[in-house]
Amino acid sequence: MPPRHGNLVLAAALLVLLASPRPSCAAAAPRRRDPVVVPVTRDPATSLYTIPVRYYDNLVLDLAGPLVWSTCAADHLPASLSCQDPTCVLANAYRAPTCNVTGGGGGGDCSKNVCTAYPYNPVTGQCAAGNLAHTRFIANTTDGKNPLSQVSVKAVAACAPRKLLARLPRGATGVAGLAASGLALPAQVASSQGVAGKFLLCLPRLGYGQGVAIFGGGPIYLGEGLPDFTTTLEYTPLVAKRDNPGYYVTANAIALDDARLPLPRGALAAAGVALHTTVPFGQLRQDVFRPFVREFEKGLNRSDAKVAAVAPFLLCYNASMLWNTRIGYFVPAVRLMLAGGKNYTMTGTNLMVDVKGGKACLAFVEMKSGDAGSPAVILGGFQMENMLLQFDSEKKRLGFARLPFYTSCSNFNFTRTQ
Ligand SMILES: *[C@@H]1O[C@H](CO)[C@@H](O)[C@H](O)[C@H]1NC(C)=O
Ligand SMILES: *[C@@H]1O[C@H](CO)[C@@H](O)[C@H](O)[C@H]1NC(C)=O
Ligand SMILES: *[C@@H]1O[C@H](CO)[C@@H](O)[C@H](O)[C@H]1NC(C)=O
Ligand SMILES: *[C@@H]1O[C@H](CO)[C@@H](O)[C@H](O)[C@H]1NC(C)=O
Ligand SMILES: *[C@@H]1O[C@H](CO)[C@@H](O)[C@H](O)[C@H]1NC(C)=O
Ligand SMILES: *[C@@H]1O[C@H](CO)[C@@H](O)[C@H](O)[C@H]1NC(C)=O
């Protein structure tokens, strides 16, 4: 194996060895209840991620979604909430800019004590009007190692018509918004279960089994004898946007291995880096995408292995001609140099996707609506798989860590301790 990556692997192993295996105990702090764990499944057809919330009910994870919605049973009881009720106000705090449905009067039919919300499908961009209803989600508490005991989590969800499920995975019955808003799933689990206002997300790679999400945050153990991986998290501030409860961080530069990508002045300043579980591959704004692909190709310097590109990608190689390492194909590492001084580093495993015909392609596409207000970088599911991410709305920061090659997000032990 070429030396650069050998060192990286060694460094990752050392980091894990040095990390303390014991979480520090803050005896004086008020005791929080045990966090809530759910398995995360990647759907092969749509590349979306789902979680089970009740028997036979699966919701699509949407990091940018402000609500939880599902196709409620025909006989569901709408929550009796006036349109001035704080819950109804929260349900209508954010509305997708493309959502132009009318009806319900934006906040509810005030004469009937019914609260209307506007559930949104992040894949099709469609929305609909639907009543808020009380519901319960069934999950397990966890100590970070195994499930402990079953809990029924009280929540409020918007009811949507079946047609809003278009292009979601087969068997999905709605969307679990994970954004930093009052009626998204993390805030609802925090208030009904008494856990911290943060959650861990560890997305699985297709074909390796289930990943894991823990509402309330770490610790998290991903294999016998391995330490709590939240001790390896690095942090960067989350940037709040006025009209958008999704998650954004600031990048000061992008580096390929050690060379900073030459970008137009201010290209990264405006809208930063967004994280989306509903786009399968990363997207770069036009002014960032072009230099990025050009410099990546130059940095890899393997024109001998280059092959015709496969849409939607622009740069593809003959997979059998690239070096394969334990951290993916041997290609330049891409580092988002984030506010706070830490790098979100992606190696071959989060950069190169295998496509049919024995090709491996750079897993980024050019953003469609690339105006100056768009984020410069959107990290998609592929860029977050086998990364440990902790979204902390209380401390307003994102924790992130690349899992070492010898474990993965699919190594959480979902067997209950007897
Ligand atoms: C809502 O937007 C869609 C396309 O985004 C458009 O076709 C439709 O006419 C709009 N409806 C209203 C009521 O404005
Ligand atoms: C809770 O954990 C047990 C043991 O792994 C499992 O059988 C059960 O399905 C889990 N419950 C839910 C709702 O995930
Ligand atoms: C981040 O990446 C840049 C470019 O490779 C490097 O110079 C810098 O030392 C890295 N920072 C950290 C904290 O690793
Ligand atoms: C690119 O590869 C060629 C052939 O292997 C080599 O001669 C050249 O020095 C390389 N260029 C750079 C910039 O590494
Ligand atoms: C890749 O290279 C191998 C060996 O050189 C060759 O047999 C194969 O046809 C190439 N595949 C593509 C997609 O170019
Ligand atoms: C998972 O946890 C159970 C209960 O603690 C234990 O018996 C089992 O050996 C664990 N499985 C693995 C693969 O570590």
TrEMBL record:
<keyword id="KW-0732">Signal</keyword>
<feature type="signal peptide">
    <location>
        <begin position="1"/>
        <end position="26"/>
    </location>
</feature>
<dbReference type="InterPro" id="IPR021109">
    <property type="entry name" value="Peptidase_aspartic_dom_sf"/>
</dbReference>
<dbReference type="InterPro" id="IPR001461">
    <property type="entry name" value="Aspartic_peptidase_A1"/>
</dbReference>
<dbReference type="Pfam" id="PF14543">
    <property type="entry name" value="TAXi_N"/>
</dbReference>
<dbReference type="GO" id="GO:0004190">
    <property type="term" value="F:aspartic-type endopeptidase activity"/>
</dbReference>
<dbReference type="InterPro" id="IPR032861">
    <property type="entry name" value="TAXi_N"/>
</dbReference>
<dbReference type="GO" id="GO:0006508">
    <property type="term" value="P:proteolysis"/>
</dbReference>
<dbReference type="Pfam" id="PF14541">
    <property type="entry name" value="TAXi_C"/>
</dbReference>
<feature type="domain" description="Peptidase A1">
    <location>
        <begin position="45"/>
        <end position="401"/>
    </location>
</feature>
<dbReference type="InterPro" id="IPR033121">
    <property type="entry name" value="PEPTIDASE_A1"/>
</dbReference>
<comment type="similarity">
    <text>Belongs to the peptidase A1 family.</text>
</comment>
<dbReference type="InterPro" id="IPR033868">
    <property type="entry name" value="Xylanase_inhibitor_I-like"/>
</dbReference>
<protein>
    <recommendedName>
        <fullName>Peptidase A1 domain-containing protein</fullName>
    </recommendedName>
</protein>
<dbReference type="InterPro" id="IPR032799">
    <property type="entry name" value="TAXi_C"/>
</dbReference>
